[in-house]
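Input (Glutamate synthase domain-containing protein 2):
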Amino acid sequence: METVWSFLASVPVWLYIVIAIAVIIALRDILQKRHTIQHNFPLVGHFRYMIETIGPELRQYIVANNREELPFNRRQRSWIYASSKKENNYQGFGTDQNMQEAGYVLIKPSMLPYRVDSTHSHHVKNGNDPHHYTIPSAKVIGKYHGRKRPYRPRSVVNVSAMSYGSLSARAIESLNKGSFKFGNYHNTGEGGLSPYHKYGADVVFNMGTSYFGVRDDDGNFVMEKLVKLMQNNPAVRMIELKLSQGAKPGKGGVLPASKITAEIAEIRGVPIGKDVVSPPYHSAFSDVRGMVDFIEAMAAATGLPVGIKSAVGKTEMWEELADIMVETGKGPDFITIDGGEGGTGAAPPSFADHVSLPLVFAFSTVYKIFQKHNLNDKITFIASGKLGLPAQAVMAFAMGADIINVAREAMLSIGCIQAQTCHTNRCPTGIATNNKWLESGIDPALKSERFNNYMKTLAKEIIEITHASGYEHPCQFGMADIDISMGDNNRTITLADNYGYLKTVVPFPGINALLECDHLGGRDIPGEKTA
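Output:
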């Protein structure tokens, strides 16, 4: 017995404390009824929840292979990261993909690539940056409807709608400064025009159902506020009326009072201390004809091109819109089709996974409707939904997109690690959070340059694929230029046969002529190269 007491006396006090804590936790586990695992396996059951918590990180960094993850796999993310840092983004020893897999995209090269002759702007502009290629839009937005300030975007690749509030101030600032450097436009998202959108880039003012920044105290749209906002901000070149988005079409949202700072309240025109509800529908109109009238009223009051953004599902209202446009000669100057795979808006899994068509089906559906009504040459089509990689972008152009917008790819270029915690306000990179400490890790000077590098690389590879296919500009791609593997006896099918239409030919006078346009946006970049 004396030996036992001697042993107990020799045990350190801290060990008794540890044992006591373990016993208390075990008793707590046994007595609680909320978690079955902890009740049945006291103490050790906690390890199950700990491992579950770090499971996503383990899978992302250790378990998953290079092509396995969604929404962007490791190979795709690595290409964006390397491009943004001006590092080697090549891969060696050939492709690691199964080119016979169903749905695999196969771009057809020409036997003789497009020759850039000595009179081309490529050679005329003596630049100091051999990697900056300018690819202007082949269409002038708003020209057909006679808007006072029509607009030809300097870049066919631009930043999609992401609001200040959803993204941090420094993230928005980085994207806008980078957009100014590259020459693309920057969509505000429906959260209003913030000071962080005002660093020189062309801006598209996105307006949702809450009319943030142009509303009264009851949330109703006020035309006078819109006109004043546009007059005070000449960098705004277009207005985008958001009907829905791919991440959560037909679903509204709530901006909690806890997230409404004095700055956000001023930008959005909402009261401090109260939840702000964004309904799933617009109060300024209730049907398609009313929407067309609303578009025309905004265009007449501001002089700017006005378009719509929507996910796609049922087609009856798209048919009605086309009919009204033929009947009246009025309607949107551009249509942004957002694929169901879009993801910068946090959403319930039921919406994110199942509601609305993926981009290829959504775009082809709407494009065919307007083609049937001979309207495609009068509208600029903008596509969004995982298009920030060269091959996917080229496929969108071949299907009829005049412009593409990128969102998550832009986030990746400024440091996003695909942690998928955007909805928690705890984004570890400071991009999708209002947490000032996390946001402080973003250096806008550095991140804007990385975004600029990513855009330059994306444009460069798009134009190199374009030249390899025998064309000068991506607008010249057609549905016969791309095959899709059917995954059946090594058979392929063209886009035309797969989706049942041929792309409407876009008039193209040459890159030099596009750059001489009076309505060209962006800025003249010293030393820029054109396609």
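The two ends are 91 Å apart (CA to CA).
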